[in-house]
Design brief:
The complex is a heterodimer of chains A (111) and B (140). Helices cover 40% and strands 25% of the residues of chain A. Chain A has 111 residues and is of the alpha/beta class. Classes of the chains: A alpha/beta (111), B alpha+beta (140).
């Protein structure tokens, strides 16, 4: 999975550079986030603007990141969801779990 | 009289093929003449149920063995769409999976539930030496 990772202060931005997040590539995101947690980073923003399709594996990877961030008193927030990707969070009720922002700036300002 | 389209597909048991099969589902959504609803939404849903069903067969039933194959069949008429995904695994308790709601904190367990939400009839059957996940969508 292609990921662009940058840091602003203690916030890490992960921009997913894939059209699909599914069982083929979501493990890569999960592993990358675990590496960041091991490095002491626990405040993450995942930018999903390029993602057109997400399945249960993609959602599961994000839940994994959220739980690990929360366990370290950090947070994982999402931004820039395409409408059909957002509908998957609503279908699975995960929109009640994640803080979801329209723009990256709004997500950054929320920390 | 409506004509039924039938397509049989066999792919290697490798998740890199999920996107290709999902896109077939999307294309199908735009060619189903009997469907009167939101085609863009149907395209996403068919992409999703094919992706979930194949990933389940590849990773859980066929244990990610890259030398195995996964077979699926798609049958479409003006009235319905029937998708069947075959595996050679141990099988699973469909009723238990479909009734158990994944907690929002669960990392897994949503695949079969999503299929059950998005399709009208879902059954997991035994046919010869294979298991078949049969998913039906009524189009009108």
């Amino acid at each position: 999975m292609q990921l662009n990772i940058s840091e602003q202060g203690d916030i890490v931005q992960i921009s997913v550079q894939e059209e699909r997040m599914d069982a083929h590539n979501s493990g890569d995101l999960k592993e990358q986030m675990l590496q960041l947690f091991d490095d002491g980073k626990c405040n993450l923003i995942v930018d999903l603007s390029a993602v057109r399709f997400i399945d249960s594996s993609g959602l599961g990877a994000l839940v994994s990141g959220f739980k690990n961030a929360s366990a370290r008193e950090g947070n994982l927030k999402l931004c820039c969801l395409q409408p059909q990707v957002r509908s998957m969070f609503e279908l699975t009720r995960l929109h009640r779990v994640f803080e979801i922002f329209t723009t990256l700036d709004e997500a950054q300002a929320s920390f | 009289m409506s004509r039924r389209i039938e397509v049989d597909i066999k792919v290697p048991n490798q998740t890199k093929y999920l996107g290709m099969i999902g896109r077939i589902g999307e294309s199908l959504a735009y060619s189903l003449k009997g469907f009167q609803g939101n085609r863009r939404e149907l395209a996403y849903h068919l992409n999703l149920v094919l992706t979930e069903a194949l990933a389940n067969a590849m990773c859980h039933a066929n244990l990610c063995d890259p030398d195995k194959d996964v077979k699926l069949s798609i049958s479409a008429s003006d009235q319905d769409l029937i998708i069947r995904v075959y595996d050679q695994g141990q099988g699973f308790d469909m009723d238990a999976h479909s009734k158990l709601m994944a907690k929002t904190s669960d990392e897994g367990g949503r695949g079969i539930q999503l299929i059950c939400k998005l399709m009208d009839e879902v059954e997991y059957l035994r046919e010869g030496d294979s298991n078949v996940l049969q998913m039906i969508k009524f189009l009108n």
